[in-house]
Design goal:
The protein has 438 residues and is of the alpha+beta class. It is built from 17 helices and 12 strands. Strands 3, 6, 9, 10, 11 and 12 form a 6-stranded mixed beta sheet that branches. A two-stranded parallel ribbon has the order 1-2. Keywords: Signal.
């Protein structure tokens, strides 16, 4: 009899909870006008967990419907063009690289009115929040943070009698010579040479003690392509090429390099922390994947970049859509969402040692990483910085100069970068400064 009463009580409580939850949803729907939220999505990451989280969001926000537009590649990088043409989504998750340009262009909605009343906002890491705070206005909510590190194949290192990761450019070159084995299609070292070459090259410039641009107090930029540190980095690239330790096929693109690294064809290369899972899924033994800070250049510093994505709201959307966009952002950046996200990843194998931009949780709460991964993530926080100012506008000019010095053994770095700076000043600098001047 007692069991029957207990079951009846539990059933009543369950029905009451369900009724209350349903009433709350109905009430929420009645309090808001229906709104359609346009978002850009890729065809990737549409697994059962992802779909279940989307269903949960819609259940909790019954007045919101999603208009999902498939946009392959990096949707965040196309946001500006979308705003200009009137086809942009109401929110987007864009790369850190694009944030300065978007803020300067006035296409991002300040988020202070939302963050001030969000009880989770105080848990976000200040150093990442500050990256997207201009004149006390918050323009982006950091979502993912992944430092650019240096990856090396421990198995290849062991075969060459090497016991530790390189700490300087000179060591890296020496180690690469020992690993290099063209007969077995193994390159001691690799870097981007066919596309996005400025992406990797900038780290070497920083490690040499300089930069490719200078941000002025008024938001304008100065080009420093001829900085002595740029020339030092270029000469190091030339040395890697002349010593024969770079990948033999310089037309390999980013995906090719990471695939070759996973297959044991590359000894070491710049390597972001969020590539670990992909590399392991491509067949690499996780025990063979070493991560360290980039080797130091002439400056003695192991400077690198902090990359990642931030959620932003389209300043051109109407108020109802902005409010709905915030509901989406706060849901997909909540502690509960992050916990569910990383728990789901942990069930699928190796996690990437990324940084959750919150102080109340860490990716190490969900997966047992090698101690060196924990250490290098902590170290990266102190030496990481955003990519060079104006990279989205000026990067292609650096790209051409880097490609020339890698493919032409007679190329003069000083001339190539002077020419690149002159062309950039003629074609891109004036319009950039007009758009970004405060």
């Amino acid at each position: 009899m007692m069991k029957k009463k207990l079951l009846a009580t539990l059933l009543t409580l369950s029905m009451t909870a369900t009724t209350l939850a349903g009433a709350a949803v109905v009430s929420a729907a009645e309090e808001h006008e229906p709104v359609e939220l346009t978002i850009w999505v890729t065809s990737r990451n549409q697994d059962d967990w992802y779909l279940s989280m989307e269903e949960k969001f819609l259940e909790e926000h019954p007045w919101i419907t999603l208009n999902k537009v498939v946009k392959e590649g990096d949707p965040g990088n196309e946001f500006y063009q979308g705003v200009a043409s009137g086809t942009a989504p109401d929110l987007v998750n864009c790369s850190f690289t694009m944030m300065d340009s978007y803020i300067a262009a006035g296409i991002l909605e300040p988020l202070n009115a939302y963050t001030d009343s969000w009880d989770e906002w105080g848990s976000f890491t200040k150093e990442y929040v500050d990256m997207f705070t201009k004149d006390d206005n918050i323009y982006g909510i950091p979502s993912t943070v992944a430092p650019m590190l240096f990856g090396y194949n421990k198995a290849l290192f062991a075969e060459a009698g090497l016991e530790a990761a390189p700490k300087t450019w000179e060591e890296a070159l020496d180690f690469a010579k020992k690993i290099n084995n063209p007969d077995n299609q193994v390159a001691g070292y690799a870097t981007l040479a066919a596309e996005w070459t400025e992406w990797f090259f900038q780290y070497y410039v920083w490690q040499a003690g300089g930069d490719l641009t200078k941000e002025n107090e008024d938001g304008t930029a100065e080009l420093t392509f001829t900085d002595p540190a740029v020339i030092e980095a270029a000469k190091y690239y030339q040395q890697l090429k002349s010593e024969g330790v770079l990948q033999s096929d310089l037309t390999l693109k980013f995906g090719d390099l990471t695939a070759d690294f996973a297959m044991g064809k590359i000894g070491m290369m710049p390597f972001a922390s969020d590539w670990v899972a992909d590399t392991v899924s491509n067949g690499m033994d996780p025990d063979d994947l070493g991560l360290c800070l980039p080797p130091a250049g002439p400056s003695g510093e192991q400077t690198t970049a902090i990359a990642g994505t931030a959620y932003v709201i389209n300043a051109k959307s109407d108020q109802a859509k902005k409010d709905a966009a915030w509901e989406y952002i706060s849901f997909y950046n909540s502690k509960d969402y992050f916990a569910s996200y990383f728990e789901n990843l942990a069930t699928k194998g190796a996690l990437s040692p990324v940084i959750i931009p919150r102080d109340d949780m860490s990716v190490t709460d969900f997966y047992d990483f090698p101690e060196e991964y924990r250490d290098v993530l902590e170290a990266a926080k102190t030496v990481g910085r955003l990519e060079f100012y104006g990279k989205a506008d000026f990067g292609s000019y650096v790209d051409r100069a880097v490609q020339k010095i890698l493919t032409d053994p007679n190329a003069d770095p000083e001339k190539e970068f002077a020419d690149a700076q002159k062309l950039c000043e003629t074609e891109a600098l004036e319009s950039f400064n007009e758009a970004n001047k405060k």
